[in-house]
Design goal:
heterodimer, A: 306 residues, mainly alpha, MetI-like fold, 11 helices, globular, disordered N terminus, B: 353 residues, alpha/beta, Rossmann fold, 12 strands, 28% helix, 23% strand
């Protein structure tokens, strides 16, 4: 360590940068060590990474990219799984594997867009309500939150999607509208607790601005639970998106939403079992992957507290 | 030496509930109830008391965590509160070190980030903050690579030293130390105390040292004040405080300090056995708050709260045993105490414990 210790007399900027980099490497190294010692979370990470890669590179990794849209090939219809069609083909002859991989794209888009819409306002409102705990700001924000929480997300999504045009965007909007209160609640609880911690108090005494206290003292301490929840929520949002597609309010045919594919395939059960089964399994795998990853993150952050 | 911090009849009452549904009769805790003392430049004043005696509340009121209910706190003659707010330069001049360094340092900030906050707020003129944080670490004798460590990677003592460095970063003139060593291992306590004393010498700091460890005060404080249920019972220069304690409560505390040898035992004040329990701060007894436990209690004690009087220069005591100044030999005869053995808490010249 002595070589990394810039002495007072010869403190060159380079030595400082070197020291900073070494410390950062050490911190990341320790985090990865802990994470990698939980086999389930590594499985989750690999699953999620694989699915994300598949979805991004869908046109290149699938055997029949043209099958993702309006395409018919009645000669090859209703084929059971084989080497040419690993997941079989559907009633109009499209490769189910190709369509499942493209289906990941819609599922991931749904998850990412909903979380991107939901997390910033949810967290901000939670910070404010928690910081002004016990004042009218708290009451106002948290009662509005309660109102939104009282409506089941799926039901509201159904209502919105049926009033507006049923498509992916509207279903994302509907789910987002119902989802932010969870983040507000999470961050509210954490903030209300953090603002009484002595490090917050001591920044206040020092004369730090409210902005500094909210975003530099309190928010960094909420980041781990937020990330954990986001990872777990990805699975949930994808599941709700699939449910909406299943009842015909999400991804519209001929686009290959996973829920849409299950809904279409369900009509041909049990004879043409592969049409519904493989997209359904894909939903299970993607949700499970995100859940395992989320659990792994939670354990990692919990271990960090000690 | 000039007075740097002065407390004038400071009161802090908390409303903890109501006795009736219409919220007409509040239940108040008189955490601090009329405290007056001062701290001089470069001096350490020890504020000692049991848990719940209000000693921490005095510090918290000084740094603006609570607004005082009544009374004044003056920094070099200037009131700390102006329309309920503290001016920025007073936030700089008066710093605090909390008891538990585990919670007073943000777990998500590196030591460098922790030390930079006071620099950004109070010393914007510092151009190279990295150099300055390094200088601070050097001043408290921590290795420089600690700059990029998180508090959880440090030991309890090191964390507390970082908390001290953070207080120093603002270049204050007064530091309130709220039991800075009671959360630490005994082996580390000495190190932190030595550091604090060295910093005080080098930077000419004034300390308000809050603790419940009386024997520590003997070596650290210039003057010691004893608090009981929100009031100061006795305040005296350290040597006099330990050699000639006057208030029955002080005598009780000093006689309760555990010692190792028989020789030390003989040096201690006569054993005073307290009777009764500490009253609840919600329900402070009338008259002298200590009268329920006092071995010398008189009729007047249950009715009238005694005034603070000066016995010898700098030695103040708040007790009915001393109605008119220092006790003389005649007035010290049993009759005034109503006890036969007539133990008089006269100066008896105990030497060190």
């Amino acid at each position: 360590m002595s070589s990394l210790n810039p002495s007072r007399t010869a403190a060159s900027p380079r030595a400082w940068r070197e020291l900073e980099r070494a410390s950062r490497r050490e911190n990341w190294g320790r985090a990865w060590y802990k994470f990698s010692h939980n086999p389930l979370s590594v499985v989750g990470l690999i699953t999620v990474a694989t699915i994300v890669l598949l979805a991004l590179l869908a046109p290149y990794v699938t055997p029949y990219p043209e099958h993702a849209g309006p395409f018919t090939d009645f000669q090859n219809a209703k084929q059971p799984p084989s080497l040419r069609h690993p997941f079989g083909t559907d009633v109009v002859g499209r490769d189910v594997f190709t369509r499942t991989v493209f289906g990941f794209r819609f599922s991931l888009t749904m998850g990412v867009v909903v979380l991107a819409l939901v997390v910033p306002p949810g967290v901000l409102l939670g910070l404010l309500a928690g910081y002004y705990h016990g004042t009218w700001v708290d009451t106002l924000i948290m009662r509005v939150t309660d109102i939104f929480l009282a409506v089941p997300p799926l039901i509201l999504a159904l209502a919105i999607a049926s009033v507006l045009e049923p498509n992916l965007f509207n279903s994302m909007l509907a789910v987002s509208l119902m989802w932010w209160p969870w983040y507000t609640r999470l961050v509210y609880g954490l903030t209300a607790q953090m603002r009484n911690e002595y490090f917050t108090v001591s920044a206040e005494i020092m004369g730090a601005s409210r902005w500094h206290i909210l975003f530099r003292e309190i928010l960094p301490n909420c980041v781990s639970p937020i990330f954990t929840k986001m990872s777990l929520d990805m699975g949930w949002v994808i599941l709700i998106g699939a449910s909406l597609s299943f009842v015909g309010l999400g991804v519209q045919p001929p686009k290959p939403g996973l829920g849409t594919m299950v809904a279409n395939g369900a009509r041909y059960l049990p004879d043409l079992w592969w049409i519904a089964l493989f997209p359904a399994l894909a939903i299970v795998v993607i949700v499970l992957g995100f859940n395992l990853l989320g659990d792994g993150l939670r354990d990692l952050f919990a271990a960090e507290e000690i | 030496m000039a007075t740097i911090l002065e407390y004038r009849n400071l009161k802090k009452h908390f409303t903890v509930g109501y006795r009736d549904l219409r919220r007409r009769r509040p239940i108040t805790v008189k955490a601090v109830d009329g405290v007056s003392f001062h701290i001089q430049e470069g001096e350490t004043v020890g504020l000692v008391g049991e848990s719940g005696s209000g000693k921490s509340t005095v510090a918290y009121t000084t740094v603006g965590m609570y607004a005082p209910t009544a009374g004044r706190i003056e920094y070099r003659g200037e009131s700390i509160y102006r329309n309920g707010r503290r001016p920025a330069h007073l936030k700089k001049e008066i710093q605090i070190v909390f008891q538990d360094p585990g919670s007073s340092l943000n777990p998500r900030h590196t030591v460098k980030q922790i030390l930079e906050l006071p620099l950004r707020i109070h010393r914007p003129e510092v151009g190279n903050r990295l150099e300055e944080t390094a200088r601070l670490l050097e001043m408290v004798e921590l290795p420089l690579e600690y700059l990029y460590k998180y508090p959880r990677a440090l030991s309890g003592g090191e964390r507390q030293i970082v908390a001290v460095a953070r207080a120093l970063a603002a270049e204050p003139s007064v530091i309130l130390l709220d039991e800075p060593t009671s959360a630490l291992d005994v082996s580390v306590q000495g190190k932190v105390i030595h550091l604090l004393l060295r910093l005080q010498r080098e930077l000419h700091l004034s300390y308000l040292f809050i603790t419940h460890d009386l024997s520590l005060m003997r070596n650290v404080a210039d003057r010691v004040a004893i608090m009981y249920l929100g009031k100061i019972c006795e305040i005296a220069p350290t040597q006099e405080f330990f050699q000639a304690p006057q208030h029955p409560y002080t005598q009780m505390l000093l006689s309760a300090i555990p010692v190792i040898s028989e020789e030390e035992e003989r040096l201690k004040p006569e054993k005073i056995v307290p009777t009764g329990e500490i009253p609840s701060p919600v329900n402070v007894p009338p008259g002298c708050s200590f009268h329920l436990r006092c071995p010398y209690r008189m009729e007047i004690c249950a009715q009238v709260d005694p005034e603070m009087i000066q016995l010898t220069p700098g030695h103040f005591v708040r007790c009915h045993l001393y109605p008119d100044g220092p006790p003389t030999l005649e007035s010290a005869n049993g009759d005034r105490h109503g006890t036969d053995q007539g133990h008089v808490p006269e100066p008896r010249g105990h030497r060190g414990l």
